[in-house]
Amino acid sequence: MFGLFKNKEIEKLAKEIVGITKEVWNILDQLKKNKKNFSKEDITKELAKFRIGIIQDEFFDHKIDLTYSGAHRWITPSIEAEDRKTWSKFNYRIIGIMDYGGFSLNFDYNNMEVEAFFLDNQYSRAGPKAKKLHDEVIKISGYKEQISI
Prior knowledge:
- This protein is of the alpha+beta class.
- The chain has helices spanning 9-34, 40-49, 130-141, and strands at 53-55, 63-67, 75-83, 86-96, 103-108, 115-119, 144-148.
- The chain has three helices and seven strands.
- The protein is globular and about 40 Å long.
């Protein structure tokens, strides 16, 4: 009975986050396997096939911010080149802000294992929904968990 009144926002957002993370992981993993060095254009072409949009920034040419159909304004996914010469050395991150501040996911070219982080301490206070989102993402994905309190 109480399930009828449950707020589905966190559950829906967690599924969207896990979905886009899996799609991006698959894209970057496949590029890693097919090419020793790949470019920003290679990534954007592959993202377009999955209807994942990008936001180009003229000042930060080593970073791609992602948009997708379920994009939440307080969750920002991005791919960043570690080495500006090649995008083969990349970091993928989802960072929560405002209500979701303190929540993040990431993986990189060295360790293609997705880690879910939760940060809440005296220097960086977490948003009121961050821990619930973190827990829901862990529950449905099985990602490696990191908590810093």
